[in-house]
Amino acid sequence: MSDLAREITPVNIEEELKSSYLDYAMSVIVGRALPDVRDGLKPVHRRVLYAMNVLGNDWNKAYKKSARVVGDVIGKYHPHGDSAVYDTIVRMAQPFSLRYMLVDGQGNFGSIDGDSAAAMRYTEIRLAKIAHELMADLEKETVDFVDNYDGTEKIPDVMPTKIPNLLVNGSSGIAVGMATNIPPHNLTEVINGCLAYIDNEDISIEGLMEHIPGPDFPTAAIINGRRGIEEAYRTGRGKVYIRARAEVEADAKTGRETIIVHEIPYQVNKARLIEKIAELVKDKRVEGISALRDESDKDGMRIVIEVKRDAVGEVVLNNLYSQTQLQVSFGINMVALHHGQPKIMNLKDIISAFVRHRREVVTRRTIFELRKARDRAHILEALAIALANIDPIIEMIRRAPTPAEAKAALISRPWDLGNVAAMLERAGDDAARPEWLEPEFGVRDGQYYLTEQQAQAILDLRLQKLTGLEHEKLLDEYKELLEQIAELLHILGSADRLMEVIREEMELIREQFGDERRTEITANSADINIEDLISQEDVVVTLSHQGYVKYQPLTDYEAQRRGGKVNLPRVLKKKTLSIVCWWPTPMTPSSASPAGAVCTG
Description:
The chain is α+β, with helices and mostly antiparallel strands. The chain has 19 helices and 23 strands. Helices cover 40% and strands 17% of the residues. Strand 6 and strand 7 form a beta hairpin. The chain is elongated, with a radius of gyration of 37 Å.
């Protein structure tokens, strides 16, 4: 039997299909389609931003070719096609796609009309300034790193973001058996909500909505009704109606009305919207429009819809709302990965997860900074000891035949503390002591015992450090380190101080990147009644002897002479007329009242 035959293992095809499909489904859910609730990023977004960060493609440096970044991403972190990576970069650079762009693009990155971006060999990119806040303190062991697809690189499992990015920029994706669609929000409002949660972790959804009233889309527009927002924030699922911002202008001379559209709903293609309106006019499904043109330019959006002389602008606009994407529904489905598992989360759940993430990040950063501060203080202690005992140390080094023997001599005996004693006493004996330091080193019995690292630092000491000015600088740096260590220990030892640090950093982010809300939220329902699609005018209703009812505008009747009665329509014969009623003021069918009617018969 061949070696290949020996490696064949019989399996049950049904069980293998189940297992393989489940593995595939979980791979799509965890590794591709759903964002992490902590940083609001999918793996491809995280890999792009990390690759740009490693490349030094910072906001205050020169742009780099998009193709270079795409090559780094697919070569090191994301083993998929280049188009998937470049499409991700393009979306993060489009002002109409992300509320706060994470990539600063130079070149053609598409338009709201659906135009494609230029090829990646033509465009250039760099990180947006706010994107650095997603990766702040990444080098301080604030998050775990995992292997890339071939084990040759390390990538962050999650970003140590200072920004609640999942709410701020939203997310959308389709996985196997589930999907997510989270709208973007205003950064200032979201941070205010996070601060309110920090102050009171028992805050209700209604309390959070006092700070976060609803989504804030990059294309602005108007959200009609609050019920869908409240449902989504409470349950994680809901639906909101987004309506274009339009106004009806009337020409003072001609009296003709014009509809001007300044903002359209989120994710609506402007060119297709205009094509749809033209199609409806051509098919006579929308009447009253005489001209349609797009006057948008670099100063903003402007869609002009000219209304016919005998049409009413508001009625035409209501018809467009009901039949085009001037009004759309946005289904909210707040699904994200929480502890590696997909979960439907409400507003409070998302904010709570972000605050917990910040607590962990700041704690890990503080531990890292404490370790580095203690390591530096450990070296400064040695230099201070050397300066306090400069003459015997120089003599010892001069007598040593080799550097190794000089190092051994420095370690072999205790040294006077000098100025270090008073500073250590104020800070505490163990405040600046590294955790890895063995008990026999450092301060013991009123004297100081050097480690190998300290002895090497003394041997590497430059002669200029022996001057009085350098001596003072060294002692000042040591004092600052002791103060920093004391503060870091305070943060680690006090939950209140830890949350205060988190609050201060959030307030700084709000100050730097916060802006005004773009999307207006109205309390009105988005439902359009049939009466909204009918122009208001004086009408006449005729009831025949046979029981037939006829509805006609009053303008169809001839003008009355003095003292005369209403002339009957020529189309009716007198023998069929029973009674005629008309309403002398504008009305709609729902507002018609027999009490206000004038009848004759």
